[in-house]
Design the sequence.
């Protein structure tokens, strides 16, 4: 997927988060391991979010492979350490399709 299409999906995801009571803290946090698309908070919990876009839910969510998830978790740990954070957090995904946007929480479980 092109960066431009990825940005469109991330913009839609951010709007979805705002509409559902989240505050976007940061976008596109990079480490040597990879990238976290969106970091958002709701209540006392920080959410690290991978955004996947596709024509349907299945094709989008299948792009989160075990290897990708491992790199994502390493990047989350870099962010927490860099910012000296010891707080509750979740690793989530937002799936953006032409018909809907869905938040999938705790994708590591």
Sequence:
């Amino acid at each position: 997927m092109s960066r431009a299409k990825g940005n469109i999906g991330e913009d839609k995801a951010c709007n979805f988060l705002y509409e559902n009571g989240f505050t976007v803290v940061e976008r596109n946090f990079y480490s040597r391991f990879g990238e976290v698309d969106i970091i958002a908070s709701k209540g006392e919990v920080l959410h690290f979010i991978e955004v996947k876009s596709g024509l349907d839910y299945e094709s989008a969510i299948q792009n989160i492979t075990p290897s990708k998830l491992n790199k994502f978790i390493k990047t989350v740990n870099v962010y927490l350490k860099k910012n000296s954070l010891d707080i509750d957090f979740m690793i989530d995904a937002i799936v953006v399709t032409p018909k809907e946007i869905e938040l999938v929480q705790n994708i590591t479980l």
User: Anything to note?
Assistant: The chain has a mean pLDDT of 93. Residues 3-104 form a domain with the Trna Endonuclease; Chain: A, domain 1 fold (CATH 3.40.1350.10). The helical segments are 3-19, 57-61, 66-82.
